[in-house]
Design a protein that fits this description.
2 copies of one chain form a homodimer.
Chain A (H helix, E strand, L loop, with lengths): L10 E6 L3 H13 L11 E6 L7 H6 L7 H13 L2 E5 L8 H13 L5 E2 L2 H12 L5 E6 L1 H5 L2 H8 L3 E3 L3 H13 L14 H16 L4 E5 L3 H4 L4 E2 L2 E4 L1 H13 L18
Chain lengths: 270, 270
């Protein structure tokens, strides 16, 4: 066991608020994947969840005349840095689309920020190669913005994977609605999620399997709240928030990365 | 529904790290008790969990030659303020003992801090009067430090309640061990907690009932992880973290305080 962390040790920053529960889920997964037996051995985590500051990512990505979330994200990232964060992750897939993520890293760099912003989607591609070496064809469930901007598709194809996705109609009417529907969507009801959200997501994963997927990425941070299990229909379910948690520990405190463990039911589902 | 929060709205700060899961539990309860239907309507929360900075509270309270956690707590509170927090709570009962809490408020005041530090134990006494008006005799389960320094006893008696506590031997050998035992204690195993921790706590609550308690305060932030239910042995279980969550919302964004809801199983028990 390592000694208790000193003040100069790395602090892991969580740039949160999209939605608020995804930030708590990431923080919980960081603690869960840390080798620690006492309070003092746990890693330092700064979580800033300022949802009211951050305009909707998808709305902006579909229409650049709408409010741009990037300035708020940069401002929160700078506050994380002021709080001591050296390595930062953001548990929001849509925020990794290049019109936001690249603009964010540029803004931070221009402002002289020293923070290391970990890229959740690139880490997910690395994780697939490392933990599932036999897999070639990967299914992706995501928000409509991430789908249309081919976020996972581009990163995964660059890493040598084939990508399977829902058809556009299913993506729009079923998968996106699981996130955003005002009645049964996870953003409206995440605590607990609705049966409808869970069922629709399982059905969408079954469709991907029929189209040859050998694993399914839950490419929206809300999805693992509805599907906390390790597999569905015999395929591994990949939780990028879990991958990000481990990547942040690896970046900030590699000696304290716990051996891989089974994913657990999420904090918001009980 | 209120409008999305503007940048100048209050930010709720969580001074955390004692233990790390208690901070996540408080953050989750703040979200749970907030009236919000979209990401943007959720309250801004800054959570700084720097466990390695903060020497053990009980150790210091029993022996003032040991490292004092107060300077680290003040430093973290100042960083919360720099991150924008206007109202701050700390989900650690032991940190509310006056040798720490009073020294912390004095330090912050000397440093010119404007932050409003909410007192979890005083809020718990207020909650009892408001939500359980018939109750006169209150049982308290806590850490040994909180027990010996009569933290709840003093605050509750000042508010006109009778207080029932375990005898010193049970407090030391059973209740304190539920927190600190290196094998089955909640600090060593909080995710999930052990059956032993849960059983010992239920037995201690039964003893308090036999001695006339009409409600039982779970006066250690780890306890609700083991006993998430609303009642035990027919007595209401009072969760000060839940009370603190509602007090922080009331202080920072009173219009968004949701109606009281049943307590839920904790984030770490699933």
């Amino acid at each position: 066991m390592p000694e208790a962390a000193a003040e100069e040790d790395d602090i892991i920053g969580i740039l949160s608020g999209m939605g608020p529960y995804a930030g708590l889920d990431l923080a919980q997964k960081i603690h869960r994947h840390t080798a620690a037996r006492t309070d003092q051995e746990h890693l330092s985590v700064a979580l800033l969840s300022y949802p009211g500051w951050i305009p909707d990512r998808s709305t902006y990505l579909f229409d650049h005349t709408k409010p741009n979330p990037t300035p708020a994200l940069a401002k929160i990232a700078r506050r994380l840095e002021a709080a001591g964060a050296t390595v930062v992750g953001t548990p929001c897939n849509t925020a990794h689309c290049s019109p936001i993520f690249d603009a964010l890293t540029e803004r931070l760099s221009d402002a002289g920020s020293q923070v290391h912003l970990v890229h959740m989607i690139e880490e997910t591609a690395r994780h697939l190669r490392r933990a599932h070496p036999g897999i070639e064809r990967v299914g992706v469930l995501s928000s409509l913005a991430v789908y249309r901007l081919s976020l996972y598709q581009d990163v995964l194809e660059a890493a040598g994977f084939d990508v399977v996705r829902p058809d556009e109609k299913t993506q729009r009417e079923v998968v996106d609605a699981v996130i955003f529907d005002e009645t049964y969507g996870i953003k409206a009801q995440s605590d607990p999620v609705t049966d409808r959200a869970r069922r629709d997501l399982l059905d969408a994963a079954a469709d991907l399997k029929e189209n040859g997927a050998e694993a399914v990425i839950l490419g929206c941070t809300e999805f693992p709240l509805a599907l906390p299990e390790r597999d569905a229909h015999g395929l591994p379910l990949i939780d990028p928030t879990r991958v990000l948690a481990r990547a942040l520990i690896r970046a900030g405190a590699p000696d304290q990365l716990a051996p891989p463990i089974r994913p657990q039911p999420p904090l918001a589902s009980n």
